Amino acid sequence: MVVPAAVVKERLRGQRIETPSWAYGNSGTRFKVFAQPGVPRTVEEKIDDAAQVHAFTGVAPTVALHIPWDRADDYGRLAKYAESAGVRLGTINANVFQDDDYKLGSVTNPDRAIRRKALDHLLDCVDIMDRTGSRDLKLWFADGTNYPGQDDIRTRQDRLAEALVAVYERLGAHQRLLLEYKLFEPAFYTTDVPDWGTAYAHCLHLGDRAQVCVDTGHHAPGTNIEFIVAVLLRAGRLGAFDFNSRFYADDDLMVGAADPFQLFRIMAEVIRGGGLDPETGVAFMLDQCHNVEAKIPGQIRSVCNVQEATAKALLIDRDALTAAQYSGDVLAAHDVVMDAYHTDVRPMLAELRAEQGLDPDPVAAYRRSGYGERIAANRVGGTQAGWGA
Amino acid sequence: MVVPAAVVKERLRGQRIETPSWAYGNSGTRFKVFAQPGVPRTVEEKIDDAAQVHAFTGVAPTVALHIPWDRADDYGRLAKYAESAGVRLGTINANVFQDDDYKLGSVTNPDRAIRRKALDHLLDCVDIMDRTGSRDLKLWFADGTNYPGQDDIRTRQDRLAEALVAVYERLGAHQRLLLEYKLFEPAFYTTDVPDWGTAYAHCLHLGDRAQVCVDTGHHAPGTNIEFIVAVLLRAGRLGAFDFNSRFYADDDLMVGAADPFQLFRIMAEVIRGGGLDPETGVAFMLDQCHNVEAKIPGQIRSVCNVQEATAKALLIDRDALTAAQYSGDVLAAHDVVMDAYHTDVRPMLAELRAEQGLDPDPVAAYRRSGYGERIAANRVGGTQAGWGA
Amino acid sequence: MVVPAAVVKERLRGQRIETPSWAYGNSGTRFKVFAQPGVPRTVEEKIDDAAQVHAFTGVAPTVALHIPWDRADDYGRLAKYAESAGVRLGTINANVFQDDDYKLGSVTNPDRAIRRKALDHLLDCVDIMDRTGSRDLKLWFADGTNYPGQDDIRTRQDRLAEALVAVYERLGAHQRLLLEYKLFEPAFYTTDVPDWGTAYAHCLHLGDRAQVCVDTGHHAPGTNIEFIVAVLLRAGRLGAFDFNSRFYADDDLMVGAADPFQLFRIMAEVIRGGGLDPETGVAFMLDQCHNVEAKIPGQIRSVCNVQEATAKALLIDRDALTAAQYSGDVLAAHDVVMDAYHTDVRPMLAELRAEQGLDPDPVAAYRRSGYGERIAANRVGGTQAGWGA
Amino acid sequence: MVVPAAVVKERLRGQRIETPSWAYGNSGTRFKVFAQPGVPRTVEEKIDDAAQVHAFTGVAPTVALHIPWDRADDYGRLAKYAESAGVRLGTINANVFQDDDYKLGSVTNPDRAIRRKALDHLLDCVDIMDRTGSRDLKLWFADGTNYPGQDDIRTRQDRLAEALVAVYERLGAHQRLLLEYKLFEPAFYTTDVPDWGTAYAHCLHLGDRAQVCVDTGHHAPGTNIEFIVAVLLRAGRLGAFDFNSRFYADDDLMVGAADPFQLFRIMAEVIRGGGLDPETGVAFMLDQCHNVEAKIPGQIRSVCNVQEATAKALLIDRDALTAAQYSGDVLAAHDVVMDAYHTDVRPMLAELRAEQGLDPDPVAAYRRSGYGERIAANRVGGTQAGWGA
Questions:
Q1: Which among A103, C237, C246, C299 could disulfide-bond with C217, CB atoms 3.0 to 4.6 Å apart, if both were Cys?
Q2: Does A346 contact C342 at a Cβ distance shorter than 8 Å?
Q3: CA closest to C102 among chain B residues
Q4: CA distances (Å), A2 to each of A322, A331, C345, in order?
Q5: Could you tell me if A166 and A119 are in contact, meaning their C-beta atoms sit under 8 angstroms apart?
Q6: Which DSSP symbol is given to B2?
Q7: What pLDDT does A70 receive?
Q8: pLDDT at D278
Q9: Cα Rg for chain B, rounded, in angstroms?
Q10: Residues sharing a CB contact under 8 Å with residue D305, sequence separation 6 or more, in sequence order
């Protein structure tokens, strides 16, 4: 039975996609960061840009912060600023990889004093969450080693576990710890949390409010990400996505740009496992680098890509699929899924937006708005935001 | 401080490496199985060949069986045959991937009757273990899907969990379930146990005697296997190795042939985590395909390769390593490891063998023995063993 | 400017997709070949099945043969049989990898007599081409080595070059040699033609009628296949495609099943480089293994997948794309391409088929036809075709 | 027959390994560049550091420059400075990836004026070569695209070819153009010279003095680099190596650190193809990033690693190898190679160094020299060199 458009639209109306403050700043590769005109100089300007994404899409009401890049004197005031701009502050992302002390690791560093410094920063982030009202603390550790022998793999796990326990114990009853994993980079031999299994094992040790964050670009070639999604949802441990896409390593391209079919499959497993239901608590976040494309429309396009993949996944005729699966008809089952994927959902999304008083084409509407030209003209002087600030 | 040769040799004396009955039969790729002269026709002939490997190396006293390839009318008699040949029966490997029924899966098949049939086979294998006196049941499932939509990922996990519980409950108090994972092949979209995290999660659910088996060829490109070894040992869940080596996919080349440095790093983590201590219970097994090279000397070479890697890993000056690691001297720490790796341990191993009354060069001794020529001359007629029997 | 449907349909009408005789026989992995009911026992039955694919799609008028799997006493009679069934004989695929002699290689074997035998087979294939009227000889060599040192890489290149020259000189003026490359399998260390660069270099050495065949499943992870297509078309050396799809290695899944966006990008480069123009001579062939899905509808689905990808690629607004590219607007240029990709072209293809007197839904029509049930009932006894025959 | 140590040492005495000026400056990842004490502030200080590497190894007499990082007012004077420090200026590396203009490419940029600017820089580099007396111009282009559609793949090839012709025509009769390829990074969808095939095809078009540069870290996972070496040597087109090592992507670790067996296999093919003979003109260069380890000893270690791999490769008993290969004894042939690899060549190298008046252990000797402490104390103030200068 064809899934009615009204049902699909109802589910889409409830979806929320968080954008990251750092997507509005400059980013690049180790070879070069190409600055773009109009890039924010302050966290407030980042929030202004995030508010644009929400204004045109209607589904991006929160913005994630990165500490210390987005450090503020008064987070209460910052939260109010955000609200006045039309958005709210979201996930707090801890950064323990840019101090010189962290060359050989942060919470897994052989030096106890450096570990303590890193832990203190993580605890500070929870303080900030208390003030911003954030639910989620996202932890990504750049920690690892470049050479066999450089440090002891197992001892580093012990150090990591110790730090995680300390952070977890500091969390409030409604706060969560999201542990992100990544195969490699910036470490090139071992990474202390390289895969979902390691993140999952640490979360199990911590407790229910420790959940795994799946960054779609952080896997070895060939890894089936939707399988991981299914397994984590089954275990009640999928906390969040960091969305982006890739052809090679952690390319951080716009989500859905490199492999839209994969994004669709991921969203299909999310829906299958109840991950789109608000009570499951799966957070959908973007984490991308707009190195060569314009940043605000890049975020808008990405939000739309997630919506389109979600819409297609919602179109899967679950009854027909189950029937075909149990009949052992491989082609028929596959066809049910492909039928949903091949559907052009853009008209439906345009309709949905019109119903919500939004322009049917958010990217085009943003381009017509003149915002990009205005910030390019007005944001003169100061220091453009980037990964260092 | 340099590790004394006597210490290294003492540890090496205690190491045991199991060879698989199927390594002595024909194997190949989907394109062609090239038959070799002298290949066994019966399980007894496979045992005879395995006994040769033990006779020349002194460290391969057991042979793993694959059921139904090695099905026997009387396993007690088979065990006695093995003993008379100079070896013992080891791990029982269950095979639920070669009946026509298993096209869409065994324990995860959508069809309940097929799942039951597969489970019954697994339970039969435990019966066999009771008769052979085997400690370990190794489970590798070829189950998975080839196309998105073919079957439901999560439901298959439920089915898998159900079967594993039934098998685990059937085990005797001194028996173990070893769950093996594999990224892909023969399934090309999803595999039901694709990575260590999935195997680990199922083992946790089962109990202490469920352990993970690491096949060194079953990972995505770039996966750091020694990290997995370290993490599993830390969690008390590393049950066994299936050793082989690879340049590309699951190539099943002789262990240590493709990346001897990786094998050394793996053995270094095994030792670091106590995995060489008999009480830890880590089983070292070969699982290889000698498609183009001679099989018995191929096994002998592989056993020697594991020994050499172990010897080098034992040579690591742990005190110097730890000191360098804590001093933050990356190069010095790396050098300690490389110094052990670059050492030519073959003279030490030759010495060890001589001390044990063995020929210092097992491959050369085997070649001189004339055994290969004898089996090529005598094993005429009958059906050569292969993956189908 | 939107590309008119009439223009797209006109181009689609001219496209031809060859199906391989072996796709109708049984196939599998090294672990198991699952037989399917109704599989052909003879080359004539394979041709009958291929004729079904053409009957329902209208664009698959030829069938490729694999020698010796499809060896016939009288190829002229076989050609007539094909014509009476509604198709023609197409590309001749030489097979020099299934004789016991070829364990260490065919045309690159260290043994001169085996090299000669392999070459003789290739020359025989040209004789067959003369009789079938085939234009193309496709050469894929399973040759390579499994272990460092097994054979001399460079000497094998010399042997390969010698054989290719001998074959090329034997070709008629209107015949072509298509050299296929593959990263690995069945060889697991070196492959004698592992990449497009090696195939290209040999073709350059031979002459204009030596062209490269791109099998979409034969690349290292991360390889950008459409780039290779663009470069080979620019050099005038893209001879043919072997279409299939993959998630991991050479999975041989249905083309477009694993990454439909990649297939679209490939077809976009084909069109950009003139490869869809008949005079360019690019041959579009399927080369897949329907291990778990039904074979004839699997081929029909695959043909449709190629058509859909082609239709989408034809929809790219080239003027808008070029304008965006020259303006440096990365997002706008990307959007032009994605706009074409996201279009649901199935209605247009249904229309095109109706215009040609075909059923708009070839898979459904085939299923309704009862052909599958008839062959399952009638093809009883005999030996089912597979990779060995 | 065992290869005599004297023969090996004689060949080693003739080997030269170039170090890059930028290895002495700071480097890092996109996440963070960790500064190290004592890093050079000027090109002269880089040369001083390079001279240390030569002083302790005796085989690194030249240093490669990167323009504009190493721009000088008077290259003649710089050359004299180098000579007075005990080294010579070597390969000139052109850099057309760090100006804001190059965001969408340099010689392949859609904007003609930017292409001209990039070409002018390349021609300037030839001017510099005339003054430094350098033989080789190494061209690595960061050019590519991040998104499908961003630019036209084929047109970019045309632009690239045009620039290369212009540079090649400007070269003096004894100068060479080395074209380097790289799979990805900083471009994440297409790279304009992604593989050896593309580099080779452009070199063929240019002429004999255009040669391919193989950077050992620039390949897709699973790529057999020694095969490429063999093929390029056979075609007379292997111009140079950029040595480094990797576990994942272009990690730029110390050569031989990640996979010493691969480095050995590469050197074995170099020797097999005559690439160690000075007249072949293969240049051996390091191109690494010492992100976390000390830089000068890191370079010394790397030079030693190349020497050790070369020594082992020279130890291969070629007669025994060939005999085993022709006899079809896979294991015996493999054993000949492994026998050389497993040999500990460090004593032989220590001997060689002693014969040349060098300390047998260059890293230890450097550490004892106090140079590292001196530069850390003296190089205060100024701006440390890095990838931006």
A1: C246
A2: yes
A3: B34
A4: 14, 18, 19
A5: yes
A6: P
A7: 96
A8: 87
A9: 21
A10: D254, D255, D256, D257, D260, D263
- Measured CA to CA, the distance from residue D231 to residue D272 in angstroms comes to 11
Neighbours of chain B (3+ CB pairs under 8 A): A, C, D
| Segment C41-95, tens digit of pLDDT | 999 999 999 999 999 999 999 999 999 999 999 999 999 999 999 999 999 999 9
State the smallest CA–CA distance between residue D288 and chain A in angstroms.
13
**Rounded CA gap, A329 and A338, in Å?**
14
Q: pTM of the full predicted structure?
A: 0.98
Q: Least CB-CB distance to B222: which of D248, D293, D301? A: D248
- Placement of tokens 């009480």 in the chain: B279
Beta strands in chain A (DSSP E): 19-20, 62-67, 88-94, 136-139, 144-145, 176-180, 190-191, 210-215, 238-243, 283-286
Buried b (16+ CB within 10 A) or exposed e, C89-98: bbbbbbbbbb
Say how many Å lie between the first and final Cα of chain C, rounded: 52
Q: How confident is the model at residue D387 (pLDDT cuts 50, 70, 90)?
A: confident
CB contact under 8 A, D185 and A29: yes
Instruction: Compute the distance between CA of residue A308 and CA of residue B382 in angstroms, rounded to an integer.
Output: 61
Considering only the beta carbons, identify the residue of C219, C221, C334 that sits closest to D150: C334
In the chain, the amino acid numbered B164 is L
What are the start-end ranges of the E strands in D79-151?
88-94, 136-139, 144-145
Q: Does domain A5-378 have CATH number 3.30.2060.10?
A: no
D101 and D114 in contact (C-beta within 8 Å)?
yes
Percent of chain A residues topping a pLDDT of 70:
99
Express each pLDDT in D295-316 by its tens digit: 999 999 999 999 999 999 999 9
Q: Smallest Cα–Cα separation from C258: which of A226, D184, A220, D219?
A: A226
Residue B296, Cβ neighbours under 10 Å: how many? 25
Q: Is the pLDDT of residue B376 over 60?
A: yes
* Cα→Cα distances C356→B329, C13, C298, C309, C353, Å: 74, 9, 22, 20, 5
Residue B328: what are its φ and ψ, rounded to 5°? Answer: 75, 15
pLDDT digits (tens, 9 = 90+) for B307-364: 999 999 999 999 999 999 999 999 999 999 999 999 999 999 999 999 999 999 999 9
Cα A179 to Cα A184: distance, rounded to the nearest angstrom: 15
CA nearest to D216, candidates D118, D303, D288, D291? D288
Domain ranges of chain A: 5-378
CB within 8 Å: C342 and A343:
no
Tokens of D385: 């060199």
The single-letter DSSP state of residue C161 is H
Is the confidence at residue A389, as pLDDT, over 90? no
Judging contacts by C-beta atoms under 8 Å, the chain A residues touching residue D292 are 103-104, 146, 150
pLDDT, tens digit, for every residue of A74-89?
Answer: 999 999 999 999 999 9
Residue B275, both tokens: 């995995």
pLDDT, tens only, B179-190 = 999 999 999 999
Q: CA-CA distance, C83 to C272, in Å (whole number)? A: 34
ipTM over 0.90: yes
Q: What share of chain C is helix, strand, coil (3-state, %, to 5)?
A: 50, 15, 40
Asked whether D308 and D350 are in contact (CB, 8 A), the reply is no
Q: Please tell me the least confidently modeled range out of A85-99, C187-201, C375-389, D185-199.
A: C375-389
**Per-residue model confidence (pLDDT) at position A388:** 66
pLDDT > 80? residue A115: yes
In degrees to the nearest 10, what's the CA dihedral of C149, C154, C160, C163? -120
Tally of CB atoms within 10 A around C381: 5
> Does residue D369 register a pLDDT over 90?
yes
Token pair of B153 as six digits: 């990922």
